[in-house]
Amino acid sequence: MKASFDSSVAALLRRVAPAGVVWALLAVPSPSAYADDYPCRVALCAPSPENPWSIAACVPALERLFDDLAHGRGWPKCEGSGVSMNYVMTPFDPCQGGLQEAGPGAWVIEGKSKPKQPTWFYADAASYGISPSASPKQSAGGDAGPNASLACVGKLMGTYRTYVGQYNSYYDEVNVAVYDQIVWQKPQSPWAIDVYQNGRFSRRVHWK
């Protein structure tokens, strides 16, 4: 049986949802034909470019979705929406804009320029135009600890070795990777859903 969709919800959410999704859902039969519009609310809310948890009309549907999954009730299906989902366990979103995840527990820092001398000769933070006040940070994974942020990194500019303090008790010598761009992600709930539109990844929705 197809799920219905309340057109008033579409009017409310049209500004935040991709247009193709809204119009596909509006083509689903009216509430007078089918009583439960929950599957199509999920299909409209989940791919929203804004955080769907920040949209009041979406919260009940998302809460029900996560509760259904927790109790083995399966996925809602809104025919004609082109939206599909799958469950993932990760506290982070995929890196965007051509960036990639740094290796688990990697020490990284953002550099300004490449060294003028070959790095095999000598390299330190100053060689890459890095301020003396800047310190490398450890990306999530490895021995970084449960609350570490994830580094999404761009082009590798080089490496150098330095000493870093850990747990305020001792110092270790580590290899630091220098990248031209780093974007940090704070950990979220690891209970998450990947949302796809017509087979293409749209976004990841974490439990609030």
Automatic annotation (TrEMBL):
Under which name does UniProt file this protein?
Answer: Secreted protein
Q: Does the keyword Signal apply?
A: yes
Which positions make up the signal peptide? 1-35
**Domain of life, per lineage:** Bacteria
Q: What are the protein's UniProt keywords?
A: Signal
